[in-house]
Specification:
The complex is a heterodimer. Chain A is α/β, with parallel strands linked by helices. Chain A has one domain (2-102): Nucleotidyltransferase, domain 5 (2-Layer Sandwich), CATH 3.30.420.130. Chain A is built from three helices and five strands; from the N terminus they run E-E-E-H-E-H-E-H. Chain A has helices spanning 50-60, 73-81, 94-102; strands at 2-7, 25-30, 36-40, 65-68, 85-88. Chain A has a five-stranded mixed sheet with strand order 3-2-1-4-5, with helices on both faces. In chain A, helix 2 links the parallel strand 4 and strand 5 (85-88). The longest helix of chain A has 11 residues, at 50-60. Chain B is of the alpha/beta class. Chain B is built from ten helices and eleven strands. In chain B, strand 9, helix 7 (190-205) and strand 10 (210-217) form a beta-alpha-beta unit. The termini of chain B are close together. In chain B, 49% of the residues are buried. The model of chain B has no long low-confidence stretch (mean pLDDT 96). The chains are: A alpha/beta, B alpha/beta. At the A-B interface, helix 1 and helix 2 of A face strand 4 of B. Chain A: It holds the Pfam family Nitro_FeMo-Co. Chain A: It comes from Fusibacter bizertensis. Chain A: This is NifB/NifX family molybdenum-iron cluster-binding protein. Chain A: Residues 13-102 form the Dinitrogenase iron-molybdenum cofactor biosynthesis domain.
């Protein structure tokens, strides 16, 4: 199964990025064979709609799961339409999150935030 | 003559200055372009109010015609479109209604629909025309509403006061675009002088004649006044930090309609601006 995670640097010893839409990179990781790659997040410098663009890029990698500390509601809508499951990261270690996910220890991400540019109530 | 009143932040006294300048003018017009929080009407309490809804165009995708080329998704600078599960998804609140996707689609699969984003209310108060722009909560930008207001006939009255949104964003630029003169309202604090510097840069960029009104003035140092001195900005009026003014204003009353001293202050300010514009 392929999963994605926003990360601060392009190596597995790096940390989970606190932002989804404006993370510098995404880790794309295959849980069956450990194959992985890093994707530059071209949405990071967008004026607006970064979450939508970032989600599009992640969905295009055909991942089934996203592990992230938080996610905006527009990005969550993209993932929902693409049937990508969202899990909440635990701690900031990439490798520990992958291990936790494999052991079914991560919980689903249920809360999404309204975004930083809009004033939705 | 169109006079725009602006400031780098909220709460400096834009509405106080705008409402009272309009109030001392004869048969003038007051326009509230602060569409996210229009509040001039609270002071004028306009009568015979008429309301017109304002719409923008939003893309509607005919999924049967769409061949998934993604040209629209790649084109949209606001990232309002995504292509998911062989369908184009439109994020209406992110869309800026530029119409680019509709023009660009090689399959002509994108139509447009109207979406109401707010309204314009017109009324009058003791001979002054009152126009209020109102943006619905959650909408991306009030620029389309401000554009519609500034097309109206009422804008061409002898004195039109444009109460701008705070800051120096697109909505402020749209509001001052056709102004003959810009009034920058500033508070006597360090934070106030920083916000003054933002709108100062903006009006210079637009090559507008401008002057500064120092509000809430107390004895002692005034960083905004120092900023004006350093940059050669004319200070066209100083309004004192006055409990009587504050009380009348917080009650939603218009100070120039109640206090002769302030009627003279704002009449002098309006004359000064007319002189600056050359009228």
């Amino acid at each position: 199964m392929k999963l994605a995670m926003p990360v601060d640097e392009k190596n597995l010893e790096s940390t989970v990025c606190i932002s989804f839409g404006r993370t510098p990179y995404f880790l794309i990781y295959n849980t069956e064979n450990g194959e992985h790659s890093f994707l530059d997040n071209s949405a990071a410098n967008s004026q607006g709609g970064a979450g939508i663009k970032a989600a599009q890029a992640v969905v295009d990698q055909k991942v089934e799961v996203l592990i992230t500390p938080r996610c905006g509601e527009n990005a969550a809508e993209v993932f929902s339409a693409a049937n990508v499951a969202l899990y909440k990261s635990s701690g900031n270690s990439i490798l520990e999150n992958i291990a936790s996910f494999k052991n079914n220890e991560l919980s689903k991400l249920v809360e999404t935030h309204a975004g930083l540019h809009q004033h939705n109530k | 003559m169109k006079i725009a009143v602006l400031s780098g932040k909220g709460g400096t006294g834009k509405t106080l200055v705008s409402v009272n300048l309009a109030s001392v003018s004869k048969n003038g017009t007051y326009i509230d372009c602060d569409v996210e929080e229009p509040n001039g009407h609270l002071f004028f309490k306009p009568e015979e109010v008429k309301r017109n809804e304002i719409s923008v165009k939003i893309p509607v995708v005919n999924q049967d015609k769409c061949n998934g080329c993604r040209k629209c998704v790649d084109f949209c600078k606001f990232n309002a479109l995504a292509y998911i599960n062989n369908k184009v998804k439109v994020f209406e609140t992110v869309c800026h209604s530029c119409g680019g996707c509709n023009l660009l689609c090689p399959e002509m699969a994108i139509d447009e629909k109207d979406k109401v984003i707010g309204a314009i209310e017109t009324g009058s108060s003791e001979g002054i025309s009152i126009i209020t722009g109102i943006l619905n909560t959650g909408e991306e930008t009030g620029v389309p509403i401000i554009k519609e207001i500034l097309k109206m006939q009422d804008v061409y009255s002898p004195v039109t006061i444009i109460d701008c949104p705070p800051g120096s964003s697109c909505m402020v630029m749209e509001s001052i675009k056709d102004a003959d003169y810009c009034v920058l309202v500033a508070e006597p604090t360090l934070f106030g002088s920083h916000n003054l510097s933002m709108v100062y840069e903006l009006v210079k960029l637009f090559e507008k004649p401008f002057g500064c009104v120092l509000n809430k003035c107390i004895d002692g140092e005034n960083p905004s006044e120092e900023f004006c001195t350093v940059h050669g900005i004319p200070v066209i009026e100083s309004i004192p930090f006055d409990i009587n003014l504050g009380t009348i204003n917080s009650n939603g009353d218009i100070i120039t309609r109640q206090d002769q001293k302030y009627f003279e202050l704002f009449s002098n300010l309006l004359s000064r601006i007319k002189e600056e514009v050359g009228l």
